[in-house]
Amino acid sequence: MTPAAALLLSLADDHAPGATLAELLTRRASADLGVDWVAITAFGDDGYLGPAGISNAAAQLLEDTQMTTGEGPCHDAYADGRIVQQPDLEATGHARWPAFTATVVGLGARAAFAFPLQIGSIRLGTLDLYRGSPGPLSDEVLSRALVFADAALLVLMHLHDEVSDPEALASRAADVLVARPEVHQATGMVSVQAQVTLRDALMMLRAHAFAEDIPLWEVARRVLHHEVRFPASDVPRHDRS
Length: 241
Known about the structure:
Blueprint: H1 3-10, H2 21-33, E1 37-44, E2 47-54, H3 57-69, H4 73-80, E3 84-86, H5 89-96, H6 98-106, E4 111-119, E5 122-131, H7 139-156, H8 166-178, H9 180-194, H10 198-212, H11 216-224
Antiparallel strand pairs: 1-2, 1-5, 3-4, 4-5
Helix pairs in contact: 1-7, 1-8, 2-7, 3-6, 5-6, 9-10, 9-11, 10-11
């Protein structure tokens, strides 16, 4: 079992009525990584969509600031596909993100970190960490944060919304993580077949998996083995690129 799958499985112990998997994951990240606020953000073709999960109400305010100002760690991490680390917002954040920094420092944030959530070249969002005191992430915390980022990616791929069947969830998570290259390759094939963007192609794969009640990796395998095709004629006009 992969570390991310084991992490998702362990969230069953944190289950709270009505809580989504994204919310449970951000709350666990806050506790395990020693940070004060955590958010999983989603991006679409038109840019920042908003948080898919937050650890608390203050995290929502910090994410609202990124949406309002159009700048901040999640925007840079998503655009560049690299981890963004800003360990001292008061000292250096104003030069990088003046509007964002001025607001979040007023809200109590002193350090911010963002991890891109992507599969191959397809970027879906970011995992955002904030702390009320300045300072870098230790190597140990950074390593653990990467596991949380893997788990957050699975959440954004709509692996599951709630922890109703944790064992099945962990199994599917392991399958998807192992099959990442195949999913990426299949997404590229569907993009060419259906004449859509890579993001839309991934959405089509996920929709097919949901409709057939099979794992995403199995759909990818069938595409790669030419057992399933997505011709352009089957794509609604508004989905075409």
